[in-house]
Design brief:
two-stranded antiparallel sheet, 49% helix
Amino acid sequence: MRERELFVDCVRRLNAVGFEYMLTGSMASSHWGQPRLTHDLDFVIQIPPSQVPRLVNAFHSDYYIDEASVVAAFQPPYQFNVLDNRSAMKVDFWLLKPDPFEQEMFKRRLQLPLFGELAWIATAEDVLLHKLHWDRITPSERQRSDAAGIWAVQKGDLDLQRLRRWAAELGVTETLEAIVSDRIKPKTT
């Protein structure tokens, strides 16, 4: 199974159970920016604790999913993963965090056709900011390059005022301005 097939399979399952979600991470940055190979998928989902068994049931047939890990994700760091038994590829799920940026990011998500399926995805601005936020937590050339790739492809369509406002709140203004001024460029290999 390739990454696209895994994505389609996950989206179909999430759509079938009706949970609210959005694609984030490297696949989202590849959609909005310069594509790159990634080794997992990242989804933010919003479910109440009472619906954990439905989520586990939606994935149990072809994935390794541990119900206790899903329940534990209702506390920081709000994350669990599932492994595709057919390909050994990993899917990271993040429960929607109660912080203002994450909440607004989720409200702004868009529903688009991706690889033949209607799927929810974070906006280009929000993926760029999220990449810079993760770079601040764990510095990574890959995160900065992904953010710069989004800027390179989308800059004429991005809301720079929104980017700058949230960059200030997230503490990533310096890195954003380095991208905007082309001092940080996307990786070309």
